[in-house]
Write a structure and sequence with these properties.
Blueprint: H1 5-13, E1 16-23, H2 31-44, E2 49-53, H3 61-65, E3 81-83, E4 86-90, H4 92-95, H5 104-117, E5 123-129, H6 136-144, E6 149-154, H7 158-173, E7 178-186, H8 191-202, E8 207-212, H9 217-220, H10 231-246
Length: 251
């Protein structure tokens, strides 16, 4: 039996011009920071932008943005909260600081429900902070958001590179559009950058930039768009500009 919420999801997303899902294959590489800053940069450039945090086990995009965790407003659905021009939705808006111990079908149902009840309205871009890893949650997201394109976050660490390579391989095997790769937390422009660039070449994917490791970020977390007033933030602005020019990626 087809879940009737699937058609509702399609309706909810019908007024969104572009969905960019930020992924990296594993946790700890700054995927949430990149997706949050990207949404801020797009909104700051005048685009109508939303950010959806789909990390149900450890959501923290609300901490990056400084979102008030009051229960969101309801009006024929749930209205995303707005911070620094970005519409924001996360399971943290409902669970607060409490953990959400979901597994299996419960996780899938929670994902479907969140997508079905959220009223995004008209957006130029919806940025999605993807679940970490390549498990059921990530695959459910791929299934439920067939028009999404993927921005892959990487760094030059050996373990990360192997995981990112598996992510790229899976995305290409599934025929999903990859709009680019970005290297995060870069301290040098040496071997690490060359490793990420080689991955981009191997999978015929645009290398969209290098985001520097920036100690100033720590003091800007939770302060919305002030995050963009850092070396990291300026690099993300460049990423947002390139991403806008990249079109629909490798279809």
């Amino acid at each position: 039996m087809i879940d009737p919420r699937r058609s509702i999801i399609d309706q909810r997303l019908s007024s969104i011009g572009r969905i960019v899902a930020v992924t990296g294959g594993k946790g700890g590489i700054g995927k949430t920071l990149v997706s949050s800053a990207l949404a801020l940069a797009l909104a700051d450039s005048g685009r109508r932008c939303g950010l959806l945090d789909l990390d149900f086990t450890g959501p923290c995009a609300h901490l990056v943005l400084g979102v008030d965790q009051a229960f969101p407003e309801e009006d024929a659905g749930i209205l995303p909260q707005t911070v620094s021009g970005v519409g924001f939705m996360s399971i943290a808006c409902f669970a607060g600081a409490d953990p959400a111990p979901l597994r299996g079908i419960d996780m899938t149902n929670a994902l479907i429900e969140l997508l079905a009840i959220t009223r995004w309205g008209e957006l130029d871009t919806l940025v999605i902070d993807m679940p970490p890893g390549l498990g059921d949650m990530a695959l459910d997201t791929v299934r439920l958001l067939p028009t999404a394109e993927y921005l892959v976050v990487a760094n030059g660490a050996r373990l990360v590179t192997k995981t990112v390579e598996r992510s790229l391989s899976l995305l290409h095997r599934l025929g999903l559009p990859v709009c680019g790769i970005v290297e995060n937390m870069s301290a040098t422009s040496g071997q690490a950058a060359a490793t990420v660039s080689a991955l981009a070449t191997e999978y015929d994917t645009p290398m969209l930039g290098v985001l520097p490791y920036d100690e100033a970020i720590e003091d800007r977390l939770g302060s919305g768009s002030t995050l963009l007033h850092t070396r990291f933030g300026r690099a993300v602005r460049d990423l947002a500009s390139l991403l806008s020019q990249a079109g629909a990626g490798n279809r």
